[in-house]
Amino acid sequence: MSKPKSPRKVGEKEALSVGTQIRGSAQKLGLVAALIRNKPVGDAMNILAFSTRAMAVDARKVLASAIANAENNHNLDVDALVVSEASVGKSIVMKRFATRGRGKSTRILKPFSRLRIVVREQQEEEA
């Protein structure tokens, strides 16, 4: 008696990777995610590698994980993969305090974000 197998969270020709605790705001990570949506994975990796935004480093790690999941776990063709979904959400927020003048203090919020990347095997249409 074992636990029943959980259903797949994505389609048959898709692979998923989630970065759960990426340090930075969801707004900044959303700008990076918008750069790679609906792009082939080779182009998306190059865009993230040469992007000047700091969040691109973590996004590139999550994308590389999604590509590896597609290749190793689902036997998909890496050359035909396309980033079908790149969604961003909020995660935890660390709360810190900074001392200020006259015995006061100020709250500092250090947000974390979640990045969910789904890659899909795209069939090339022949013209």
UniProtKB/TrEMBL annotation:
UniProt keywords, alphabetically: Ribonucleoprotein, Ribosomal protein, RNA-binding, rRNA-binding
Query: What domain of life is recorded for the organism?
Result: Bacteria
Q: Which Gene Ontology cellular-component terms appear in the entry?
A: cytosolic large ribosomal subunit
GO terms in the biological process aspect are:
translation
Report the Pfam families cross-referenced here: Ribosomal_L22
**Is the keyword rRNA-binding in the record?**
yes
> Where does the record locate the signal sequence feature?
none
Q: What Gene Ontology terms describe what this protein does at the molecular function level?
A: rRNA binding; structural constituent of ribosome
What InterPro entries does the record tag this protein with? Ribosomal_uL22, Ribosomal_uL22_bac/chlpt-type, Ribosomal_uL22_bac/org-type, Ribosomal_uL22_sf
Q: How does it assemble?
A: Part of the 50S ribosomal subunit.
Q: What does this protein do?
A: This protein binds specifically to 23S rRNA; its binding is stimulated by other ribosomal proteins, e.g., L4, L17, and L20. It is important during the early stages of 50S assembly. It makes multiple contacts with different domains of the 23S rRNA in the assembled 50S subunit and ribosome. The globular domain of the protein is located near the polypeptide exit tunnel on the outside of the subunit, while an extended beta-hairpin is found that lines the wall of the exit tunnel in the center of the 70S ribosome.
Similarity-based family: Belongs to the universal ribosomal protein uL22 family.
What is this protein's name? Large ribosomal subunit protein uL22
The beginning of the lineage is:
Bacteria, Pseudomonadati, Pseudomonadota, Alphaproteobacteria, Sphingomonadales
